[in-house]
Amino acid sequence: MTAPAAAEAALRGRVAVLVSRATDGEVTEEELLGAGVSLTALGVTSLALLRLIDAVEEEFGIVLDLDGPFRFLDDLDGLVGHLAGLGVAADGGNDA
Amino acid sequence: MPEGTVTAAGLRAAAVPADTEPEKAGVPGGPVPSGACSYTRRDVAFQGERSGRAPLTWGQRAIWHAIRRTAPNDHYFNIGRVLPLADRGRPVTVPEALRALAHLMERHESLRTRLLLPQDGEPAQSLTDAGTLTVTITRAAGLPEAAAEADALLGRLSSTRFDYPAEWPVRAALVTAGDRVTHAVLVLCHLAADGHAAEILVRDLRLLVRRGSAGRPPATTPLDLARDQHAAAGRRRGAAALAHWDAGYRAAPPTMFPDPRAEPRTPRFWTGRLVSPALARAVGTVAAAHRVSGSTVLLTASAALVAAGEGHRTAAVLPIVGNRTAGALRDLVSTLSQDGLFILDLAETAGLAESPGAREPSGPAEPPGPREPSGPAETAGLAGTFTGLLPAAYRAALRAYRAAVYDPVEWDALGERLSAEYGTDVHPYCCFNDMRLVERALPGGPSAAAGELAEARRRTTFGFPATQDRVACRYCLHVTEEGDALAVSLTADTAYLPPEAIRAHLYAMEELIVASAAGAPPPLTELRTLLETAGGGRP
């Protein structure tokens, strides 16, 4: 695995933990890491999404912008891609 | 111990029932009960861990502003709860219940926090470590009468405003039958608690009565929260929230109900209340089909009907937001709720197909072909149906919920700035409060059939249960649960929404959502017609 790929996989795993925690464990990391299923289809409620936004912002020290037709909360990879675009790394830092 | 720290050791028991003084009527610090019942007062001592002062939290500031605008009728904001204690478990004695109340006062700093009103300066909060709480005790003739006595006490204790700087923000009472306590009654000042906090207090009181402990102490306190909010990070978050409000206000009309349409009634504000099992089923069905929350379905229906009724393309509704998503705030007894700003552009969103995604409508089939538009000129150009609004409404609701933590003083300043800029009052005067703490799973399956809904609608009831002289809003929609039904109350200014319009609005909301659940979501062009016809032939 290349270094960027390994970094993204680590970020993906980290974000899956945060999403699962936001649902109080109702949605497991394994379910989240499965391919291509939307967060709401997995049972992530709007309340859990709000918790997730709080957790992501606190963990990575960023602000998620909800203006416009945001898509990054649709599924795990959308969120991971959005965070990577913001320069976020799995160790909680912000590369930017 | 440094300020800002609370430990379990600080929650020591200090309940010392002090005096006993039977009297016929008159409850110090509270309203005067009527009737010939005999009341007893017991002073219960409590000893909390610390005292201190801080600015008001933003939630406290928000409710204080609302209280000032509503005074002298601000008892409207009191929050009452009855905890039954004779339903199961071993009998509870008066000393046990008093000890539990003392523990409750010690556990939650909010209950020991009063308002400071300096002559020159901002209102602030003052936490006191120790004191006594006067508890009213009334004896019921027997168990069957006890519940009614508890309800009567709740009504009496709720019926007067709190003395905010002087009185503890909780009034407590016990009902007894024989030698056991049958009910505990709590009436809370809204500065100390919102609806969620009231439930936490009832839960904790039950645990303290039954087990003597309510577990780990709360993770934070109103005092510490205030300090966090007024620090740099809190201010940054508040500023980001107010940027959402600025943009939202600029996208919407200055107000939702601009023109009085009738002579106001006396009292001016009327509450209409629709109780509908069909609506409960239909909201669940539409929510499941479109993968949004039931709350979003109701909020969207409210916004769409207000816009249609007033001829607006864009609705601005203020949902009351719980602000408890952060882990540390889930169990905090304080008033965290603040207004959010939900902006829904019917013209922009209804006709747009969102890209294939999680919340793409996938539920009941749309009706075959568009119906003939029948609305007025304002609705021309509105494409699509009510359920077509839901994907965009879902995102708009998330934005609103995220932007509901801000300093009300700065929020007021924003409103004043925009009002000066526009030359007219900028405020939606249109609020939405889903007071359900959880949305229950639907009984009997995820979706309701049209026949089942039609049958359920026969059980819908409607009435005007209350009036008020003064409410600082023109349209206040409240959602609660009542058995298997949803109860939707609309308190409105009769100058803008006369009683018949209140009734029509609530029936239109039921019709809109029930029709959507049955697979025939009404076109947006027909919403105004719906407002004119939905109540016809109904009770």
From TrEMBL, chain A:
InterPro entries: ACP-like_sf, PP-bd_ACP. Signal peptide: none annotated. Residues 33-67 form the Carrier domain. It comes from the Bacteria. Pfam families: PP-binding. This is Carrier domain-containing protein. It comes from Streptomyces rubiginosohelvolus. The lineage of its organism: Bacteria, Bacillati, Actinomycetota, Actinomycetes, Kitasatosporales.
UniProtKB/TrEMBL annotation, chain B:
It comes from the Bacteria. Residues 354-381 are annotated as: Disordered. Residues 54-327 form the Condensation domain. InterPro entries: CAT-like_dom_sf, Condensation_dom. Residues 364-373 have a biased composition (Pro residues). It holds the Pfam family Condensation. PANTHER family: FATTY ACID SYNTHASE, NONRIBOSOMAL PEPTIDE SYNTHETASE. This is Condensation domain-containing protein. The lineage of its organism: Bacteria, Bacillati, Actinomycetota, Actinomycetes, Kitasatosporales.
